[in-house]
Amino acid sequence: MSGRTLSSSTVPPAGHELRSVHDTSPAARRMSHAVRRAVGAVAIALLTAGLAVLGAGPAAAHSVLVSVDPADGAQLSTGPARVTFTFNENLQPSFPSVTVVGPDGNLWSEGQPVVDGPRVSIAVRALGPAGKYTMAYRVTSADGHPVSGTRSFTLTAAGHGTPGPKADAASSSGGGGSGGVPVWVFIVGAVVLFGGGLAFALLGGKTGKKTSKR
Ligand SMILES: [Cu+2]
């Protein structure tokens, strides 16, 4: 009996509620539409934000090295004419650097690196000593960030080529030589300035004390 009364008492209100929803004024209906739209907009915003966060990795990533010729770890009996790094997208042509450094620490690449779409390459001399040659790249990614790395191949039979300059000397003269004032000049300058300021402050303090005493 109680169950029946419960059901009979609950059903009418439900129907009433339903009816009342249908009977709402146009203004109220517009309100609910607006709310639904707002909720939908928020949901879409959250979803796109989530996707953006998820997509941030790949979308904002640097250009990625896809392959190198000769292949990383290759065993070669004769040296390659060029070393070519290929990336997943076109590189920016600014400030590319590609070097091939031999087991003797000498530079075996020569000339300037060439950027061609997704590739950057450099000419290589006839090689010298057998052993590991390190191929290094530093390029400007499509997104403007620099990317760099090294790969290597092994020359199994010594060649008769003549090396370029020492890799260290070449890189330091290229990087620091034109850079101008070395760091130690700034350090000495800072020490002199600081020391001078300190001496002035101390002397000034002493004379101040003396004059105040008198
Ligand atoms: Cu980047």
TrEMBL record:
<keyword id="KW-0732">Signal</keyword>
<dbReference type="InterPro" id="IPR014756">
    <property type="entry name" value="Ig_E-set"/>
</dbReference>
<keyword id="KW-0472">Membrane</keyword>
<dbReference type="GO" id="GO:0005886">
    <property type="term" value="C:plasma membrane"/>
</dbReference>
<keyword id="KW-1133">Transmembrane helix</keyword>
<keyword id="KW-0186">Copper</keyword>
<protein>
    <recommendedName>
        <fullName>CopC domain-containing protein</fullName>
    </recommendedName>
</protein>
<keyword id="KW-0479">Metal-binding</keyword>
<dbReference type="Pfam" id="PF04234">
    <property type="entry name" value="CopC"/>
</dbReference>
<dbReference type="GO" id="GO:0046688">
    <property type="term" value="P:response to copper ion"/>
</dbReference>
<dbReference type="GO" id="GO:0006825">
    <property type="term" value="P:copper ion transport"/>
</dbReference>
<feature type="region of interest" description="Disordered">
    <location>
        <begin position="152"/>
        <end position="174"/>
    </location>
</feature>
<feature type="transmembrane region" description="Helical">
    <location>
        <begin position="183"/>
        <end position="204"/>
    </location>
</feature>
<feature type="transmembrane region" description="Helical">
    <location>
        <begin position="38"/>
        <end position="61"/>
    </location>
</feature>
<feature type="compositionally biased region" description="Polar residues">
    <location>
        <begin position="1"/>
        <end position="11"/>
    </location>
</feature>
<dbReference type="InterPro" id="IPR032694">
    <property type="entry name" value="CopC/D"/>
</dbReference>
<dbReference type="InterPro" id="IPR007348">
    <property type="entry name" value="CopC_dom"/>
</dbReference>
<dbReference type="GO" id="GO:0042597">
    <property type="term" value="C:periplasmic space"/>
</dbReference>
<feature type="region of interest" description="Disordered">
    <location>
        <begin position="1"/>
        <end position="29"/>
    </location>
</feature>
<feature type="domain" description="CopC">
    <location>
        <begin position="62"/>
        <end position="155"/>
    </location>
</feature>
<dbReference type="InterPro" id="IPR014755">
    <property type="entry name" value="Cu-Rt/internalin_Ig-like"/>
</dbReference>
<dbReference type="GO" id="GO:0030313">
    <property type="term" value="C:cell envelope"/>
</dbReference>
<keyword id="KW-0812">Transmembrane</keyword>
<dbReference type="GO" id="GO:0005507">
    <property type="term" value="F:copper ion binding"/>
</dbReference>
